Amino acid sequence: MAEAALILGMMVVTYATRYTVMGLWGRAALPDLALRWLRFVPVSVLTAIIVLSTLAPQGTVDLRLANAYFWGGLATVLIAWRTRRMLPTIVGGMVIFWVWRLVVS
């Protein structure tokens, strides 16, 4: 019962904060500078999450040869840079990660 109340409370707080901002800003036009800045928010958040989980999968920075997350992430970045295509990037990064994990770890 306590878990359900907690989840309901989180839903109310999340809805209230997001609706207030959307309700106020939804009717007003944002300045062009703010709109340009907002375009970078998803990229920045995803980069922060990915870099942290790649460099510190166990909570501390791990640059050892056995860190398959780091080498898989590095391979993914290189594949994305060279091909600029989503499917080869995802498949190539996952294959490098799995092979590195099996061979090195």
Write a structural description.
The chain is an all-alpha fold and 105 residues long. The chain has two domains: 1-38; 40-105, no CATH class. The protein is built from five helices and no strands.
Structural key phrases:
2 domains, 105 residues, extended, mainly alpha
Give a nutshell description of this structure:
The chain is mainly alpha-helical and 105 residues long. The chain has five helices and no strands. The chain is extended, with a radius of gyration of 20 Å.
Mean pLDDT: 91
Spell the H/E element sequence. Answer: HHHHH
- From the alpha-carbon coordinates, what is the Rg to the nearest angstrom? 20 Å
Cα(first) to Cα(last) distance is: 43 Å
Task: Tally the helices.
Answer: 5
Number of domains: 2
Shape: extended
Q: In total, how many beta strands?
A: 0
Residue runs with pLDDT of under 50 for 5 or more positions = none
Give the helices and strands, then pairings.
Elements: H1 2-25, H2 32-38, H3 41-55, H4 68-83, H5 86-103
Helix pairs in contact: 3-4, 4-5
